[in-house]
Amino acid sequence: MKIVHAASELYPYMKTGGLADAVAAMAGALADNGHEVSVFLPGYRAVLEHKDAAGAVRKLRLKIEMGDQFLSGDIRVFSPRKNLEVYLICREEFFDRRAPYGNGERDFEDNSDRFVFFCKAVVETLRLADLQADVVHSHDWQAALLPLLLRESERRHRVTLALKTVFTIHNIAYQGLFPATTFARTNLPDELFHIDGLEYYSQVNYMKGGILFADRVTTVSPRYAREIQTPEFGCGLDGVAQTRADDIVGLLNGVDTAIWNPAVDTLLPARYSRAEMKGKEICRAELLKRVGMAANFTGPIFGIVARFADQKGIHLVLANRDFLLVENCRWVVLGSGDKRLEDEMRALAAEAPDKVVLVAKLDEAMSHLIEAGSDFFVMPSLFEPCGLNQMYSQVYGTVPIVSRVGGLADTVTDADEFPGTGTGLMCEPNAGSLGDALERALVLYADKRRYSAVQQRGMARDFSWKVAAAGYENLYREAL
Ligand code: ADP
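# adenosine-5'-diphosphate complex -> structure
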């Protein structure tokens, strides 16, 4: 099949979260299975500076209609592996920036324009380069207008650009909600600014467009597919999701085992596997050393790697400060984002520097070292579309402590509830329940045989993309 993906992030070129990992692994797995895959990505500065893009060839110059203006753009193409081409949508004014969505404090003011331009440029490239896609698969709000813009262009130009469209919701909490005035920039017929179209309480909602107008809609875990149809998790789009109930499926993300695998991970000081765990001890000692803690500590190390956003339940960890300060544990926290959460975590770390360390930045190598060197990985998300770190931690023999939501509930089994099959510990997304789980972690850690059995079962699980890629292939075939 000829499969076109469009997303605002793609590992290793631009990443703020799991979206980048998921799109890269999905596209890679499909390419490995012999499909012809293209991924459209904004030409951010970091991408253009990446060595893979050095040989990118300019393929097209575009003029994109945006309201009553025409804005120019460039398409550059490179191929990082067999059967896979990356199409960069370049326009300096929009994408030649360090960060993709905002400056840390607030979102860029021209985000509505930037991502309408992105989607329209994908459509124009499909049309002018005559790519003849079987499936156009767009991801999250930034690419959510693509199915609609594509059908509109087909109607206008009387051509077929894609046989089927698929839209994947990686996180329904981010919807691309903009003032009504921005609708004109889409050049879509006025009747689409309507309750059955892109309008959402007098604003324009891109995510809603993806859900309503794609031929198929997917979420990144089965449980999240059900959750988004409820008021508790639908972030206001539960009613819209319900209208597509028959066309929404949840396909669990996988783990890219070329990158996240302790047996081959070159970002670690030592490698290890289920059969040979000595390397994990070395990683543990290195982690303690790296954050300035005594390497001979024998109690449990709790690791966290997360965007600091309300979603991730960092405040639930902070609410258990007594546990963090009193118990004989170490906490290594890698994360940044919400300033209030960062400040509170920093204050806690300042209070007990021997017990808690915060590394407040994006650090790929450190994220691998935490996954490998910790004994427990803590992820008490309030909601979690799929979540990758709880899978990574199982692969790395680090017992996850997660809340019972979304993809976390689909990928972790509680070891107290299911002693024969458990791979982690689960709690409800509140501070008290997390506190109980942390206490249970101490009990588990004290019982070395049981801890090791839980660890081994997690490592034996197959989270590889083979399964996930087959799910998408089936979905595409069935849609076609
Ligand atoms: P989300 O996409 O909601 O952020 P996921 O668990 O799906 O959550 O994916 C998060 C990804 O981002 C993981 O690969 C994780 O390792 C990575 N990540 C998050 N914060 C950091 C950080 N500070 N440094 C390096 N990687 C990070």
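# post-check
The pocket of adenosine-5'-diphosphate is lined by residues 17-19, 21, 305-307, 334-336, 362-364, 367, 386-389 (CB under 6 Å).
The chain has a mean pLDDT of 97.
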